[in-house]
Amino acid sequence: MFILKRQDVDIKNIQHPSTDQPIPILHYQEQTFRLLSVFTAAQEEDAMALWRDLTDNRGKACVLLEEAERYSVWGKIRLDSLSTGQSNAKTSGTAEQLLIQGCLLLLQALFIDVEDLLGNKQAALFEQDITSVLTQWQFPQVTSAKTVKTLLTMDPLATQVPAWKEQHLLKLLEELHRLGKDCFGNANFTERSLEALEDLPANNRQKFMTWLQQSPPGQLWS
């Protein structure tokens, strides 16, 4: 849609209606955009590729913001949707169980996809990468590579899930999308991964999809 410079836009934080987390909102010509993904200055090609994929291939209204030390991709949003479609995360901290279950199903589905289509070697690299993500961002109850292996193989609907907060789930979804694109070269994997949500009861599946669509990574996965 647009490639903009920092002086072209106004960025302000607003308070998420159901959590204490501030949400950066970009204002441009009476339109508002929510942050989807951030790249370093050295990742210009990756930022451009994501922006083009969202705008040209998936029909999303997005802007690419070019700054001195980073690039960022923002998706168009109506501010009233934040208040009318509140997140299902609990204000007290830990996200609702069904959200954690859904994210674990997506993680497992992508891992299986990588293993089935690209082989064991690529699957092992994916496992290493996701281990690095979960430990780097200090996901609660993730203490070792063995813990991650358990997350990749457990039944999240029959086993107690880790006590992750909404910000952990949003980071996981963003990183899963990045790793999936690195593995497959495009974002076609998202449709296959989302099929794993059929394991959720219908009501929970609808709640999860509503939350996903209203979250910052939602445009990456829709």
Q: Which features does this protein show?
A:
Phosphorylase Kinase, domain 1; 6 strands; 9 helices; 6-stranded mixed sheet; alpha+beta; 50% helix; 222 residues; 18% strand; globular
Report on this structure:
The protein is an alpha+beta fold and 222 residues long. The chain has two domains: 2-84, Phosphorylase Kinase, domain 1 (2-Layer Sandwich); 97-221, no CATH class. It has nine helices and six strands, in the order E-E-E-E-H-E-E-H-H-H-H-H-H-H-H. Strands 1-5-6-4-3-2 form a six-stranded mixed β-sheet. A hairpin with a 2-residue loop joins strand 3 and strand 4 (31-40). Helix 3 runs antiparallel to helix 4, helix 3 runs parallel beside helix 6 and helix 4 (120-136) packs antiparallel against helix 6 (166-184). Mean pLDDT is 86; it is low at 84-92.
* Range of helix content: 40-55%
Provide the β-strand percentage band: 15-25%
Model regions low in confidence, pLDDT < 50 over at least 5 residues: 84-92
Oligomer: single chain
> How large is the radius of gyration?
17 Å
Number of separate strands: 6
Total count of domains? 2
Overall structural class, as computed from helix and strand content, comes to alpha+beta
Distance between the termini: 18 Å
Question: Average pLDDT across residues?
Answer: 86
Order of helices and strands: EEEEHEEHHHHHHHH
Order of strands across the main sheet = 1-5-6-4-3-2
What profile does the largest beta sheet have? 6 strands, mixed
Helix count?
9
